[in-house]
Structures are given as C-alpha cells and as structure tokens.
Automatic annotation (TrEMBL):
Residues 29-190 form the N-acetyltransferase domain. InterPro entries: Acyl_CoA_acyltransferase, GNAT_dom. It comes from the Bacteria. Pfam families: Acetyltransf_1 (PF00583). CDD domains: NAT_SF (cd04301). Gene3D superfamilies: 3.40.630.30. It comes from Streptomyces marokkonensis. This is GNAT family N-acetyltransferase.
Length: 190
C-alpha cells in the first residue's frame, strides 16, 4: 500500500469581527439552510463535493449514523444554489463551551472558480457566529474553527485566510493513499 504525507492546517476566528466577508457573486446564487435532516441529501453533498479530493471518512456511514449526526443540536447544513441547483455546502457542528467547527465546506467541481466559494464560506462563518440564536440552550459562539489539508483544492487555504481565519496548528502525517472515489463508485478513473 502506498502512503503519502498529508499536511493538515487548523485555522480559527476568535471574534465575529475577525470575519472578512467576500462579495456575493453575480447571478442567482442563494444560500439556504437545509432545515429537515436528510441523510440522503447530506450524503449527496458530501460525496459530490468531496469525491474528487478523497473525502472518504463518511462514505461508510449508515443511514442511521447520518441521521444521528444530523439530528444533533447545533448541527446545520447551509447549501449554496446557483440558479436553483445545489452548488456546494457548509456544515456547522457546535461543540462544547461555544466552539463551532466548520466541519465540511466545499463546492461541487462544476461550480468551482465562479466566486461562489468565498461567499459561501463568509455566509457559513457568519452563521457559525450566530448559531446559538437558532438553538436555545447552546452557548454563545466564542470561537469558530476549521481544518484543511494538502489534499484539498489549491485555493482552499487562501480562501480561509482571506475570510479572516488564522492558522493555529499544523500537522504532517502519513496516510494510506486511496483512490479518488468520485460522487459514486467508479465516477473517476483510477
């Protein structure tokens, strides 16, 4: 089995004023919260966005596991639509003591390079900061964080930093190299 070195960078914002919003793209781009937990839709987003960049950790999740995750207090999925078509998403997960993770963020490949990503990240980070307003009983957000890695797109780190996220940790680990799964088995050649 072949192994590759993967660098993971963790970034954070520690105040709402850290957020540096991107301009909204031209055209009919809307961001809407998926308020009804739907394992099918969330798996579609996960596989479609991450299929070409080797997101594999949730591919084996059962329907019940997806539902359990999505029904947790403080888990939200915000979906960008371009002319009514899902273009990408940001998933927020509330942790302890007012810490919110942008657990997943990205665009379906056909929608990359259209200035949607900066806008979606800006919107998602703003929703992380006001998450407790929508979830009575959750602590007010004190910190928003995320991680990206060397397997992600070439513009990911730059987008995070331009939105006001600051690097706080870097790790390099060896990982088994896996085939690009695509949005469904066999979608991309090996």
């Amino acid at each position: 089995m072949t192994h590759i070195a993967v660098t993971t960078w963790s970034l954070e914002q520690t105040a709402p004023t850290d957020l540096l919003p991107a301009a909204a793209p031209e055209g009919d781009v809307r961001i809407v919260r998926a308020e009804v937990p739907s394992p099918e839709f969330s798996r579609f987003l996960y596989a479609s966005v991450g299929g070409d960049i080797r997101w594999t950790d949730r591919l084996g999740w059962s329907h019940a596991r997806w539902r359990e995750h999505l029904e947790r207090a403080g888990v939200e999925t915000w979906v960008a639509h371009d002319h009514g078509t899902p273009a990408g998403y940001v998933e927020l997960t509330s942790g302890d003591d007012g810490v919110v993770e942008i657990e997943y963020f990205g665009l379906i490949p056909a929608f990359r390079g259209r200035r949607i990503g900066g806008h979606l990240l800006s919107y998602g980070a703003a929703r992380a900061w006001d998450l407790a307003d929508r979830w009575p009983g959750l602590a007010t957000t004190k910190r928003v964080w995320l991680h990206t890695c060397s397997k992600d797109g070439p513009y990911a780190m730059d987008n995070y930093q331009r939105r006001g996220f600051r690097l706080f940790d870097t790790k390099v680990e060896e990982e088994a190299e896996v085939a690009t799964p695509g949005p469904w088995p066999g979608a991309f050649p090996a």
